[in-house]
Protein backbone atom coordinates (compact mmCIF):
# COMPACT_ATOMS: atom_id res chain seq x y z
CA UNK A 1 0.00 0.00 0.00
CA UNK A 2 2.70 2.51 1.00
CA UNK A 3 5.85 2.72 -1.11
CA UNK A 4 7.46 5.93 0.14
CA UNK A 5 6.96 7.41 3.62
CA UNK A 6 8.24 10.81 4.77
CA UNK A 7 9.06 10.80 8.49
CA UNK A 8 9.48 13.97 10.58
CA UNK A 9 12.55 13.70 12.84
CA UNK A 10 13.63 16.22 15.47
CA UNK A 11 15.63 14.17 17.96
CA UNK A 12 13.04 14.38 20.76
CA UNK A 13 11.55 11.47 22.72
CA UNK A 14 8.30 11.84 20.76
CA UNK A 15 10.31 11.73 17.53
CA UNK A 16 11.78 8.38 18.59
CA UNK A 17 8.21 7.03 18.84
CA UNK A 18 7.48 8.33 15.34
CA UNK A 19 10.60 6.65 13.93
CA UNK A 20 9.68 3.42 15.70
CA UNK A 21 6.16 3.40 14.21
CA UNK A 22 7.38 4.33 10.72
CA UNK A 23 10.16 1.72 10.86
CA UNK A 24 7.72 -1.02 11.84
CA UNK A 25 5.44 0.06 8.98
CA UNK A 26 8.39 -0.05 6.58
CA UNK A 27 9.51 -3.46 7.80
CA UNK A 28 6.03 -4.93 7.37
CA UNK A 29 5.14 -3.32 4.01
CA UNK A 30 8.50 -2.78 2.31
CA UNK A 31 7.95 0.99 2.17
CA UNK A 32 11.05 3.17 1.86
CA UNK A 33 11.52 5.85 4.50
CA UNK A 34 12.64 9.41 3.82
CA UNK A 35 13.78 10.79 7.17
CA UNK A 36 13.38 14.58 7.27
CA UNK A 37 14.77 17.02 9.81
CA UNK A 38 13.72 20.66 9.60
CA UNK A 39 16.25 22.83 11.44
CA UNK A 40 14.17 25.05 13.69
CA UNK A 41 14.80 28.59 14.79
CA UNK A 42 15.07 29.09 18.54
CA UNK A 43 13.98 32.36 20.10
CA UNK A 44 16.89 34.20 21.65
CA UNK A 45 17.28 37.57 23.35
CA UNK A 46 18.39 39.49 20.27
CA UNK A 47 16.49 37.52 17.64
CA UNK A 48 16.02 34.06 16.26
CA UNK A 49 18.98 31.70 16.48
CA UNK A 50 19.53 28.71 14.20
CA UNK A 51 19.73 25.22 15.63
CA UNK A 52 23.33 23.93 15.41
CA UNK A 53 23.87 22.06 12.13
CA UNK A 54 25.26 19.06 13.98
CA UNK A 55 22.00 18.64 15.92
CA UNK A 56 20.12 17.80 12.71
CA UNK A 57 22.80 15.40 11.54
CA UNK A 58 22.81 13.68 14.92
CA UNK A 59 19.01 13.38 14.99
CA UNK A 60 18.93 11.94 11.48
CA UNK A 61 21.75 9.49 12.19
CA UNK A 62 20.07 8.24 15.39
CA UNK A 63 16.76 7.86 13.54
CA UNK A 64 18.43 5.97 10.70
CA UNK A 65 20.16 3.56 13.07
CA UNK A 66 16.93 2.95 15.02
CA UNK A 67 14.87 2.45 11.86
CA UNK A 68 17.34 0.05 10.27
CA UNK A 69 17.57 -1.82 13.56
CA UNK A 70 13.85 -2.56 13.24
CA UNK A 71 14.24 -3.79 9.66
CA UNK A 72 13.20 -0.62 7.85
CA UNK A 73 14.51 0.51 4.48
CA UNK A 74 15.86 4.08 4.71
CA UNK A 75 16.04 5.62 1.24
CA UNK A 76 17.09 9.19 2.04
CA UNK A 77 18.11 11.55 4.84
CA UNK A 78 17.01 15.16 4.37
CA UNK A 79 18.19 18.06 6.55
CA UNK A 80 16.53 21.36 5.57
CA UNK A 81 16.48 24.90 6.87
CA UNK A 82 13.01 25.88 8.01
CA UNK A 83 12.81 29.34 6.48
CA UNK A 84 9.41 30.98 6.14
CA UNK A 85 7.53 27.77 5.36
CA UNK A 86 8.19 26.22 8.78
CA UNK A 87 8.73 22.54 9.57
CA UNK A 88 5.30 21.58 8.18
CA UNK A 89 6.22 23.22 4.88
CA UNK A 90 9.52 21.33 4.78
CA UNK A 91 7.70 18.01 5.31
CA UNK A 92 5.05 18.96 2.74
CA UNK A 93 7.75 19.80 0.15
CA UNK A 94 9.64 16.57 0.90
CA UNK A 95 6.45 14.55 0.40
CA UNK A 96 5.94 16.17 -3.00
CA UNK A 97 9.60 15.92 -4.04
CA UNK A 98 9.99 12.25 -3.15
CA UNK A 99 6.48 11.14 -4.15
CA UNK A 100 5.42 10.08 -0.66
CA UNK A 101 2.30 8.04 -0.06
CA UNK A 102 2.29 8.95 3.65
CA UNK A 103 3.75 11.49 6.08
CA UNK A 104 4.38 10.33 9.66
CA UNK A 105 4.80 12.93 12.41
CA UNK A 106 4.38 13.12 16.15
CA UNK A 107 2.98 15.46 18.74
CA UNK A 108 4.94 17.12 21.50
CA UNK A 109 2.15 16.71 24.01
CA UNK A 110 1.46 20.42 24.44
CA UNK A 111 -1.96 21.32 25.71
CA UNK A 112 -4.58 22.72 23.34
CA UNK A 113 -3.95 26.35 24.33
CA UNK A 114 -0.17 26.18 23.91
CA UNK A 115 -0.56 24.30 20.61
CA UNK A 116 -2.96 26.89 19.26
CA UNK A 117 -0.72 29.81 20.24
CA UNK A 118 2.67 28.35 19.30
CA UNK A 119 1.39 26.25 16.44
CA UNK A 120 1.83 22.59 15.76
CA UNK A 121 3.55 20.86 12.88
CA UNK A 122 0.98 18.07 12.88
CA UNK A 123 -1.93 20.53 12.94
CA UNK A 124 -0.49 22.53 10.05
CA UNK A 125 0.14 19.42 7.98
CA UNK A 126 -3.49 18.37 8.30
CA UNK A 127 -4.81 21.52 6.59
CA UNK A 128 -3.78 20.72 3.01
CA UNK A 129 -1.52 17.66 2.86
CA UNK A 130 -0.22 16.21 -0.43
CA UNK A 131 -0.91 12.68 0.90
CA UNK A 132 -2.32 11.00 4.05
CA UNK A 133 -0.78 12.02 7.37
CA UNK A 134 -0.31 9.66 10.32
CA UNK A 135 0.10 11.46 13.65
CA UNK A 136 1.70 9.43 16.47
CA UNK A 137 0.60 10.80 19.86
CA UNK A 138 3.17 11.48 22.55
CA UNK A 139 1.72 9.26 25.27
Query: What is the subunit organization of this protein?
Result: single chain
Helix content: 40-55%
Distance between the termini: 27 Å
CATH homologous superfamily? Answer: HUPs
CATH topology: Rossmann fold
Radius of gyration from the CA trace? 14 Å
Note the total helix count. 5
Number of self-contained structural domains: 1
Attribute tags:
Rossmann fold, 7 strands, alpha/beta, five-stranded parallel β-sheet, globular, 139 residues
Structure report:
- The protein has 139 residues and is α/β, with parallel strands linked by helices.
- It has one domain (28-46, 56-136): Rossmann fold, CATH 3.40.50.620.
- The chain has 5 helices and 7 strands; from the N terminus they run E-H-E-E-E-H-E-H-E-H-H-E.
- It has helices spanning 13-29, 53-69, 86-97, 112-118, 121-125, and strands at 4-8, 32-39, 41-43, 48-50, 73-81, 102-106, 133-136.
- The strands form 2 sheets. Strands 5-2-1-6-7 form a 5-stranded parallel sheet, sandwiched between helices. Strands 3-4 form a two-stranded antiparallel sheet.
- Helix 1 crosses helix 2.
- The protein is globular.
- The chain starts with a strand and ends with a strand.
Question: Which secondary structure elements does this structure contain, and how are they paired or packed?
Answer:
Layout (H helix, E strand, L loop, with lengths): L3 E5 L4 H17 L2 E8 L1 E3 L4 E3 L2 H17 L3 E9 L4 H12 L4 E5 L5 H7 L2 H5 L7 E4 L3
Helix pairs in contact: 1-2
Amino acid sequence: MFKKVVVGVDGSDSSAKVVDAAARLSASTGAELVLVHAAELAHARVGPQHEPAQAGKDALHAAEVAAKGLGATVAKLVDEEVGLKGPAGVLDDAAKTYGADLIVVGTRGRNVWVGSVLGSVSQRLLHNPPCPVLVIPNL
